[in-house]
Amino acid sequence: MNFKLEGVVVPLITPFLEDYSIDKESLKWLVSYLIENKVNGLFVNSSVGEFASLSIDEMRLTTKIVMDSKKDSVPVFSGISTNFTEESVKLGKEFKDLGVDAIVILPPYFFKVSEKELIHHFSLIAEKVDIPIIIYNIPLYTGMNISISTYKTLISQYSNIIGTKVTFDSLIYFKRLIKELREVRKDFAILTGFDEYLLPLLSMGGNGGVMGLANVVPKFHTRVYDSWKKGDMERANKYWLDLLNLTEIYDYCNSYTASVKVLFKILNMPIKNVVRPPLTICEQKSEELARKRITSLLSSLANSE
To answer: So where does pyruvate get bound (predicted)?
Structure first.
């Protein structure tokens, strides 16, 4: 493995044209923009990227566009989550051939599987796809929180399961996850899916975050991580407080995706404010609230440099 799973990983939004087709040029622009802003990784076919609204062919297309657009120095992780294990295996093999650095897998998000079935699902993929694997735990969307015992079973048996992204609102869970999994594998990476948890998780021994708002102004996130890595906790905490203020924007719209995409519109960036139904874009009142907050925070960002 020639990369480290750490720092600020961006779960890419999927740009759309007005007819809901994928906006290929905007996706290329986004990849270049994020690389220029020195993020630590790109995650295509993410939840904030509306992967559940993409066809299998579109998941292939977005992955190919990102791989063709990126520079060699930035790792790319591609989601292969489906409700049919063998379909995920097939996608994983295809994405390996495209050159992705790792694949990302959710638990099945329709069937309420048992722990035994969940272990079987992840195990089959780990056995059949020879590539680093990141487990994605997001109970809000899957209806199940992956137990620590499930993680311990999997990472003790499969060295290619290298880390996890966890979008679960519990620092106690993270504390236990870090302590107990590091007893099994010191190299196992643990990242948060919540922007708000970036600094707390790093301070607890975690590795970073996969955070939606980093699509737009990644410096809010990267300066927290960079300051922490340098041991400058005073600056890291100061920047984290700005990041907390930024995350209020999530509360203005009906979805995380809409919140991220409206910021591109507000900042006149080349990503259209289009989401696929049943999601809807932010209402005008919410857009104005987001405009006031991001304008204020960007002014503060400029003054602090």
So the answer is: 210
